[in-house]
Amino acid sequence: MISPDLTYRSRAVRALVLLHDAHLRRFLIVWRQAHAGSVVLPETADPAYTTLDTLLRHVLNAARGYMTWMCEMLELPDPEIRIAPEPAVLSQDPESYMEHLLERWRTPLQDVGDDRLESPEYASRWQTRYCIDAMLEHAVMHPIRHAFQLEELMGNPIRREKEF
Predict the structure, then answer these.
(1) What does the domain layout of the chain look like in residue ranges?
(2) CB atoms inside a 10 Å sphere around CB 74
(3) Superfamily name and number for 11-153
(4) What's the predicted TM-score (pTM) here?
(5) Is the pLDDT reported for residue 63 higher than 60?
């Protein structure tokens, strides 16, 4: 678990790194529940969503990709995050890879100031343009979205107190 005492030049970066850590951990909990419940994903042509194991690898490799992309755009050193193992191997011990990934997420952006977060924008690997702040937010939301999808497949959607 990330230490809340870890210092960052930008409070925004600190908040998003902490949120990413928490939500990636939560995704793994939900993924484990789905795996234990033998949840089957809907049919799709996308190879990242064919099985729970490929979905797990997709989410963890995406987290790797977001940080390596931000470091490239900011001309920071390579964070040296290993590529996730193949799905069948990864699913046997996902915590080990996740801990490596999250540990490598903690320090690369420590010295990035607010002045570098919103401008300029850069083309992502899928060609959508993002500033660093938006990519950090995207990285936080990605495991949240997939945890939500799995919860719905398990019949546990988020319940709203009130509909607006």
Answers:
(1) 11-153
(2) 15
(3) dinb family like domain (1.20.120.450)
(4) 0.92
(5) yes
